[in-house]
Amino acid sequence: MAAPTSDPSKTWSAGRPPWQVAVDAIAGGWPDDSGTLALLRDLATTDTYAGVREAAVGAITGGWPDDSGTLALLRDLATTDTHAGVREVAVQASTRHHAKDRQQASE
Fold first, then answer.
1. pLDDT band at residue 2 using 50, 70 and 90 as cut-offs
2. Which residues span the domain enclosing 52?
3. Quick check: 52 and 23 in contact, CB under 8 A?
4. What does DSSP assign to residue 33?
5. Longest C-alpha distance within the chain, in Å?
6. What angle do CA 15, 20, 22 make, to 5 degrees?
7. Is residue 1 part of a domain?
8. What tens digit of pLDDT does each residue of 9-61 get?
9. What is the mean pLDDT of the chain?
10. What DSSP string describes 62-79?
11. Does the residue 6 lie in any domain?
């Protein structure tokens, strides 16, 4: 058995990084638990690894797109996260959120 590594990118599961698998499992396994969204928000804003933050943003926008705090979180991450990849994911999700709002307003 291989020793654990401090770099999460060194271990991959079915072509997906382990942090993505873990975040997806949390979001998909406990979507109705009140602590799930809070945990994902915490991961999106405070985890030291950008891949985890990106995965958490994706999970939040996929599972809780209409939550009152989602758009504010996306705006914050799009402008303040230290990693370009996280900012990009947040901008893309925010853009999709605005497009959905405009479509609903025109119906």
1. very low
2. 17-26+34-106
3. yes
4. S
5. 57
6. 115
7. no
8. 555 556 788 888 899 999 999 999 989 999 999 999 999 999 999 999 999 99
9. 84
10. HH-TTSTTHHHHHHHHHH
11. no
Residue with tokens 């406990």: 30
Q: How far apart are CA 69 and CA 66, in angstroms?
A: 8
CA–CA distance, 56 with 3 (Å, rounded to integer): 26
Break the chain down into helix, strand, coil percent, rounded to 5: 70, 0, 25
Number of domains within the chain: 1
- pLDDT value of residue 102: 62
> Which residue in 59, 51, 65, 62 sits closest to 26, CA to CA?
59
Examine residue 4 and state whether it is found in any structural domain, yes or no: no
- Strand positions, DSSP E, the chain: none
Helices (H) and strands (E) in the chain, counts: 5, 0
Residue type, 100: K
Single out the residue of 53, 29, 21, 50 nearest to residue 40, CA to CA. 53
CA distances from 87 to 22, 47, 62, 104 (A): 21, 14, 17, 26
The pTM score is: 0.79
